[in-house]
Amino acid sequence: xxxxxxxxxxxxxxxxxxxxxxxxxxxxxxxxxxxxxxxxxxxxxxxxxxxxxxxxxxxxxxxxxxxxxxxxxxxxxxxxxxxxxxxxxxxxxxxxxxxxxxxxxxxxxxxxxxxxxxxxxxxxxxxxxxxxxxxxxxxxxxxxxxxxxxxxxxxxxxxxxxxxxxxxxxxxxxxxxxxxxxxxxxxxxxxxxxxxxxxxxxxxxxxxxxxxxxxxxxxxxxxxxxxxxxxxxxxxxxxxxxxxxxxxxxxxxxx
Length: 255
Hints:
CATH topology: Rossmann fold
Helix content: 40-55%
CATH superfamily: NAD(P)-binding Rossmann-like Domain
Number of strands: 7
Structural class: alpha/beta
Strand order of the largest sheet: 3-2-1-4-5-6-7
Strand content: 5-15%
Number of helices: 9
């Protein structure tokens, strides 16, 4: 039986993959046959645990440290991936964070720029570095990980984060239009309330309870549920899907 999600022979770079959605995506990609590079910044222990667990299955995987807010680190991430695993066929721009909850009166210019650099500019620059090789080979897939916050403005104190994710949805469409004719597909996945370290840091149990009350499925999602959709968009099963943002939120937001 044909496996339309097969990624055998592909090299994938996933930023921000030391835990949560990025880590789950790395595991699925490896299971589907891809060579995987995971980027991480502060969570070295988590990244090495992800690497070691996946490597134990016989898959080829490397963990590379870098701060996606720094152009030199992004370049090193791309170059090391290419050197160790081969030309990048799949890029998952997953690195991002709310950083901290701040309302309008609290946001400083420096904090605003930091959140934009982390969630938006890093995806632009990493795509810019990876796209030429994809264009040359007339093949490639880029998946940006956005957020339901980019659709609805986010929860309390998430103004800057929501703005960055909304812009990333727009960037996805712009990149898709520019690169489609060269055989490079660009799409996005928009998680809702997912049970990851993100909400352990930024959301109280009471906030989660209120979020879940508005989810038709009546529960939070899992990293694996997001990763499976990312794998679809990265694979040939999505060969005719361009510029789309797929919502993974249990029905919390229906467009």
